[in-house]
Design goal:
67% helix, single chain
Length: 353
């Protein structure tokens, strides 16, 4: 059947849904631009800290992101893409207004592109996910993550999202490729190792030895890339230069008990709570349900993990990889309920199972 032969009501529904997706994405883009060009959180933070925003000065950006041996240097690809696009923009316009500095314009171009890229797997209409139930909390997380701007955050989130989707489709080879792409932007690629380990624990559709081999492959690939990146782009393992192992420092150290940290943690905790309530009735239905519940339960352990590596969890952006599987879980739970409400037949199995 060709598109011309589709029933009129199907054509109408598809057209309306397409316009809905475009409208949602336009709203997300407007919100991102408002943050970057109107609310200017990077400038506000710089004023409080008595410094200059990296998006208002090429020299400051170079010293922060492009010099070897800084924690940002190893997260090189996002820095390089933003910097070279800004240099290209500077050949056309170089406003004296800090709100229209080439670096900020480059950020205003790339950030929505990255955000849209991360939503593509669900927006493509793949069975198994309610795109509205995904895009609304996803957009909220993205916008809150811009409270502090770093060049590698959004691209890492985008490719991590695609990689997680591939794991949920049990397409491990392309998921491995996406993990290596994420590692060029941030160490968030380690989350892919966890996603595969969680998949191995939750599914029984592949032999145990094969699942364990995939976990070992992802772990070895992460370790090799992590080491290689830090040879070619030297940088410390964390902002403090090492790993914090003192439980007192992890649980009660400076910066943990503060208003901004408590607010960030409270906002982030909403996502696993919503995912848990959406998925819990389905936990015996599919392995995906067990996967999402396991990720909800892992939330507090990730907080401890980030603290061990001196992560500033007062910045919501740090927790974007942790809440990402919860977003997919909320979308999956909504899709299952929608299918059940329309058809009393057994729940269809998403592709990839």
């Amino acid at each position: 059947m060709t598109i011309d032969e589709w029933p009129a009501d199907v054509m109408s529904d598809r057209t309306v849904e397409c316009f809905d997706k475009v409208a949602y994405l336009v709203c997300v883009a407007i919100c991102i631009e408002l943050v970057l060009f109107k609310f200017l959180p990077d400038i506000g933070t710089a004023v409080i800290q008595g410094s200059s925003s990296t998006l208002t000065d090429f020299g400051v950006f170079e010293q922060t992101y492009l010099l070897p041996d800084s924690v940002h240097h190893a997260r090189f690809l996002g820095n390089e893409l933003l910097y070279h696009l800004a240099r290209l923009i500077a050949t056309v316009t170089n406003s004296s207004d800090v709100r229209l500095y080439p670096l900020r314009i480059a950020a205003g171009i790339l950030t929505p592109v990255y955000a849209f890229t991360g939503a593509l797997p669900v927006l493509s209409g793949t069975a198994g996910y309610n795109w509205r139930a995904f895009l609304i909390p996803y957009a909220l997380a993205v916008i809150m993550g811009l409270y502090v701007f770093y060049p590698g955050d959004m691209p890492a989130l985008a490719f991590l999202s695609i990689g997680l989707f591939l794991v949920l489709q049990q397409r491990m080879a392309p998921a491995l490729g996406l993990m290596l792409v994420v590692g060029l932007f941030r160490e968030s690629s380690f989350h892919m190792v966890w996603f595969v380990a969680a998949w191995a624990m939750c599914t029984d559709r592949q032999p145990l030895i094969r699942r364990l081999c995939w976990v070992a492959t992802f772990a070895a690939a992460f370790a090799a890339e992590y080491r290689g990146v830090r040879i070619w782009f030297p940088g410390p393992i964390s902002a403090s230069g090492g790993v914090v192992l003192d439980p007192k420092q992890i649980l009660l150290g400076s910066g943990l008990i503060s208003l901004t940290t408590l607010c960030s943690l409270a906002l982030a905790a909403l996502f696993p709570i919503l995912c848990w309530t959406s998925i819990r009735p389905l936990q015996r239905t599919t392995w995906q349900a067990r996967f999402f519940l396991l990720n909800c339960a892992a939330f507090p352990f990730w907080i401890v993990f980030y603290r061990m590596f001196s992560g500033n969890i007062s910045e919501f952006r740090m927790l974007l990889p942790v809440v990402l599987p919860c977003l997919y879980g909320i979308s999956y739970g909504s899709w299952v309920r929608q299918v059940r409400s329309c058809d009393a037949a057994p729940v269809p199995v998403p592709s990839g199972q």
